[in-house]
Amino acid sequence: MSETPQHLYLVDGSAYIFRAFFALPPMNREDGTPTNAVFGVTSMLLNLIERTDADHVAVIFDAKRQNFRNDIYPDYKGHRPDAPEELRPQFPIIREAVEALSLPYVEMEGFEADDLIATYAKQAAAAGAEVTVVSSDKDLMQLVDDHISMWDPMKNQVISYDQVMEKFGVGPDKVVDVQSLAGDSTDNVPGVPGIGIKTAAQLINEYGDLDTLLERASEIKQPKRRESLIEFAEQARISRQLVRLKDDVAVEVPIADLKRRAMDKDRLLTFLKENGFKRLIARVSDGSETGASASDAPAPPKPADASYDLVQDADALKAWIALAEKVGTVAVDTETTSLNQMQAELVGVSLSVEAGKACYIPLAHVAPGSAGDGDLLSTGDDAEVPKQMDKAEALALLKPMLEDPGILKIGQNIKYDAVVLAGEGVAVTPIDDTMLISFVLEGGMHGHGMDELSELHLDHKPIAFSEVAGKGKSQITFAEVPLDKARDYAAEDADITLRLWQALKPRLLEEKLVTVYETIERPLVPVLAMMEREGIKVDPTVLRSMSTDFGKRIADLETEIHKEAGRNFNVGSPKQLGEVLFDEMGLDSGRKTKTGAQSTSSDVLEPLRDAHPIVAKVLDWRMLSKLKSTYTDALMEDIHPRTGRVHTSYMMTGAQTGRLSSTDPNLQNIPIRTEEGRAIRKAFVAPSGSKLISLDYSQIELRLVAHVAGIEPLIQAFRDGQDIHAATASEVFGVPMADMTSDVRRKAKAINFGIIYGISAFGLANQIGVARGEAQAFIDRYFERFPGIRAYMDETVEYCRKHGRVETLFGRRIHIPTINDKNPMRRNYAERQSINAPIQGTAADIIKRAMIRIPKALEDAGLSDRVKMLLQVHDELVFEAPEGDTEAAIACIKAVMEGAAQPLLDLKVPLIVEAGTGDSWAEAH
DNA sequence: TAGATCACG
DNA sequence: GACGTACGTGATCTAC
């Protein structure tokens, strides 16, 4: 083998250090030396070398702070603070770590890591090697070309020409020119004032390059821009010198010396032991990726041992805020009067900055024993209102901290707190959410409520809400809880949240789930919070008249049913109804329920429609009662008194597959399948002058099946825009498309759905009303025609048996612990789940990715202040827009939705979105 | 509080 | 080879 590299991997080590230091909770080895950055860098490098095929590797670091750029511009990176005290002692240990991993450690006085990377990259590329630069630093993007690409380890994403184009609006060869104009506040590169990346890209595209632009600056039409460019031309040229990487450094280590060496396991293990990295030791010694469950960090005191502060004046609050600023991370929890976030009134806030250290800030407590409202007579001699800060004053102090981009706010289900605080005019950003981290790590294994997570990870049972507020009828609101009890409960919640974060957050990195969390879950929080606060307008008059109409018809039907039955009984009682229909009237009872009672469900009653007139009446009664109680009546109660709109709450951990669920009220199950039910959607309206827009993915799950199972005929049918169920029928039953009957198509449609659900002959037979043997024959023929589907199912189930989980195409994990259950019923069920979950979950990931991108896309289209995203119904998004903006909004949103799998995923089938508009949801869908 | 039923994707 | 079945949700009502 020759010494010329085939594939050179250049790792931007400095970036890794900072990333690890700030992302991981503090850790110390036995002698007290902090080790969190060491741990993070070691773990990341270990991941990296396990997955690359590179034959040459270097980990490259910045030397000391001064370099040639400071001679050009003394302020370069001038405002960067010194490395934090906790980080400084870790630098030499990180060097040891790199060496223990048998990787070359490269640094050079007077040069930044970026210059060394540029030099090696150019040299290797010139020699014909492929180069991968591992970094997410945009300053390195100027290097990208046919031979040099980047890998962003945080986003798990390749950065090549397209991504550079997306980021800078120009190709890699013009990145330097754009950066020279736009400047860079993080590196203190001045650029030209008033010019950002967008304008810079536009100018460079127009004039070709920086020099030409500066020469011809006087031709620019916009006066301000023209003057700025003329005045700051020299500053732009200086910026270019700062930004352009030096690719001809006389490197001390030749490329040949970067040849990858075999890992010295003993040396590595010695290093890991010295630093107490138990989890990495386990991983290196047996190669298993699950690792030990023991935490590497020493156990902090249990919450029970902690004592908490009550903050009752501005000075105390300022001290806590200063602490949060110093640490840079703070757990936040709000206490309110209601679980319903739109009705909730803020009662207090708790904060925690380190394990065991937390406070509670009461803001709206009332005298204990006094009812929160209505009790006007008993003011005088009641207990006093407890001492607490003025709410507005406290929020004014908290607001800058909660909105500070440099302070991470950690919450358990922080969407709730964000919605409540948004009601007080306070934004919460940036955020982390322990509930979501747990869901991403261990979805399917257990619930993700705080009490459960605390018992699981901290071995501590938190104070129950009912202990401080009571339960049942005598339950009081949190505002009435005495301050000492309120402090113990509320501060503990913040403390636990912080500890959970410390325990769980590092695992995202170790278990390669950072991308799912950071690109699909976390950024969705502000989007959903906004939708929930927006709500959708519901017209109560429509509901009221429907309710009256339904009420009459239900009463009439009830009379008739009682007459047919020969006695009065409660039609809504399945037990009584069963007795009447089957015992007294002698109808054929179909199934039994699992408790042994005779089932009266609609699929039992439906076939009996013709057996007796009472059956149809019962079915109608059922339908109308359902519609009245669950929809028309209940929905009127849910109209918010102040907004006149209905505000649902989305639960992000509600469905194992990654789908959202909707509660209070559930707006994801508003009727549509029957004419009567569909009418309820007429009550969901746009305000006058606006329209509702509904956009939904067409057949997204079936498209995903065609993709993952590689079913060529279906892929082709989707590409050709054919009726997919008819095309399936044609393939499976051999009927030419021209001769297709609705019955054959119906059967094919049922099989297609069956495939998504993990088909069984019994289930299919039930669904389409044929004998089980016939259903089995259909399935056999389907598998015969589309062998890919069999293979997909077998492989998926096999993978699940081995790992206890399945994955979506975006890497979301869905755990299915019962897959190896000895009970065959539970096991079969788990197998069907494992077939369905990747499909349903990938579809959920796709629409979430779309939702995250939509606010930005609307802003770019100049629509963001007028077009509002209101609802998500699994494969559908509902918006409200002024009448004149609907067309532009549809074009913008449709493009985002149809492209939402990109660039991470290149589907073999197109994603198609269908759109409609109208004055009501009934018209729009 | 569990079970049955039925609304949705 | 038996087990008893389509996947994922939430709200309402009855009956215990």
UniProtKB/TrEMBL annotation:
KW Chloroplast (keyword) present: no
SMART domains: 35EXOc (SM00474), 53EXOc (SM00475), HhH2 (SM00279), POLAc (SM00482)
Record-annotated 3'-5' exonuclease domain positions: 308-509
Swiss-Prot/TrEMBL catalytic activity: DNA(n) + a 2'-deoxyribonucleoside 5'-triphosphate = DNA(n+1) + diphosphate
Stretches assigned to the 5'-3' exonuclease domain: 6-261
GO BP: DNA-templated DNA replication; double-strand break repair
Domain DNA-directed DNA polymerase family A palm: 677-885
One Pfam family of this chain: 5_3_exonuc_N
EC number: 2.7.7.7
GO MF term set: 3'-5' exonuclease activity; 5'-3' exonuclease activity; DNA binding; DNA-directed DNA polymerase activity
Biological role stated in the UniProt entry: In addition to polymerase activity, this DNA polymerase exhibits 3'-5' and 5'-3' exonuclease activity.
NCBIfam families to which the protein is assigned, alphabetical: pola, PRK05755.1
Subunit relationships: Single-chain monomer with multiple functions.
Family note: Belongs to the DNA polymerase type-A family.
The protein's name: DNA polymerase I
Species whose genome carries this gene: Pacificispira spongiicola
Gene name per UniProt: polA
